Fold this protein.
Amino acid sequence: MSILALAVKSLLSRRTTAVLVILSIGLSVALLLGVERLRTQARASFANTISGTDLVVGARTGATALLLHSVFRIGYATNNVSWTSYQEIARHPRVRWTIPLSLGDSHRGFAVLGTSLDYFRHYRYARTHGLELAAGRVFDDVYDAVVGADVARELGYHVGKSIVVAHGAVDAGLSLHDDKPFRVVGVLRKTGTPVDRTVHVTLAGLEAIHLDWQSGMRVPGATVSADEARHHDLTPRSITAFLIGLDSRTAVFHVQRFVNEYRREPLLAILPGVVLQELWDAIGVAEQALLAVSALVALVGLCGMVTALLTGLNERRREMAILRSVGARPRHVLTLIVGEATALATTGIALGVALLYLALVVVRDVIQTRLGLSIEIGLPSRHEWLLLGAVLLASFVAGLWPAMRAYRQSLADGMMVHV
Amino acid sequence: MSEPVIEARDLEFGWTPDQPLLRVERLAIPAGQRVFVHGPSGSGKSSLLSLLAGVVAPQRGSLQILGTEIPRLPGAARDAFRADHFGIIFQLFNLVPYLSVIENVTLPCRFSARRRRQVEGCGGAEREAARLLEHLDLGAEARSRRAVTRLSVGQQQRVAAARALIGRPEIVLADEPTSALDSDRREAFLRLLFRECESEAATLLLVSHDRTLERLFDRTLPLADLGVPSLQPVA
């Protein structure tokens, strides 16, 4: 039996203290890992919001504002892009596809997005995932609507449901386009992106409901019925923004310059990946703080361990003297205490990992539905292993302190302690 | 007469160098002898045992154990030497509380390769421990899984004796091992200890302030009680 077996037996003899120490280390490790996992999942989910789009184009504004508005449906655009400019840029030889986006209206708190069929064809998220229908079909008629998964679930919508769009981002129930209702023809599968919380309608439909409106007000007397509207020219005069896919990534900066220097009106083209990264770096400070706090909690757990080991030393002077008398060297005493610290930490870490997985299984559905974050229950990542290694290393180093003390004590006492 | 197991010349030791506590002009202890070291408390009995076991080093003089000059050895070698050649019994609290009786007895075999080899010839450390405990009337305790802290003081001292003897070390040092026992138990314990030391061919040095035990030993080393104590040359 080695000196480490002695350490384990010694710990077992002080079970209550050992269990409490293990519990505190376990809980702090679980917290540390949990925060880390939430952090990476949030970051991944954020970065996965939009993929495959090379450029986002809108009227000249801040890059972040454009991204927030066009991709996250947060805030609103002050200016639009004219249809002719859009058409001209879309005809650029390096542009392979475009998705027009027209925002500004809402339906019961969800954003209403006017777009074309290219949206369903080219929109990508989480690297390569395309949009898929859970039920129904995509647009066919002017008044067709396709709703995101959250919209369908929260409002209980299904194919065939008739819906009314409210004018403006806030649905106050006052300015409703209730004369021209849309019909839900499709429900999208869950994506974990803002698409889930969007009501998609045709650009023509959006144009139709605004035929008899001006400056956000219904024009008195000039009512155009839903069917009459079909005979009007429903080509929009402007859109809010559009997404561009290029024939090759190498053309990104070329086309970006082309858009930014566009003469007819001031436009801005952004690389969504770059701006997403900038945005995350800005809000990442909070996330770093969270990680720092959980690291401190882990430190507190280790402090508890050191306290328990240190307070035990005095009553163990006798034990050390006995060990010295049977031939244990001071370095054995050192190994014994460091061994105890490491055994406590290892068990604590194992408990922490177990607690984390238990918690993940329990709360995964809640997080998925409440936060829209999909948590994967996979093996610990490389970074997580590094964190666990850091905790183990810290416990080893922390254990050296009481161990050095026991070492010096046993050198001074020799084996003749008179207690 | 064979080579002495312990041989000291002009040995001087003090916890502070200018205040010698113990002076030994000449001392030779032959193998197998039972030596009673007597003196009142503060006379340097424990210091003598620490010196012999190589826990502390003398300020001057020569100390040979089994022909090895102990003070010249480096610290780690002294620890190893002690583990190999000494069995030690304390006054009280001899046992590691979280180990079983057998584990306490076999403890020296964990640290000393020599003693491990010695017990291998007898069927392993645990069998040898059981045998020694049986000899010391602790057969039942050895087999039970009872915590060592639940044993009586006398039983604990006998477990300590078994631990001191396992793996046949040449020298057994006992520091007041009977002071916590009833007077009628003392002699019984010593007789058991003597018997086992004899059968293991171990030299025994026992320190005590209790003169009534003196008659049981081959020889007495008195430590004077005043001034600088000195062990006088003894035949």
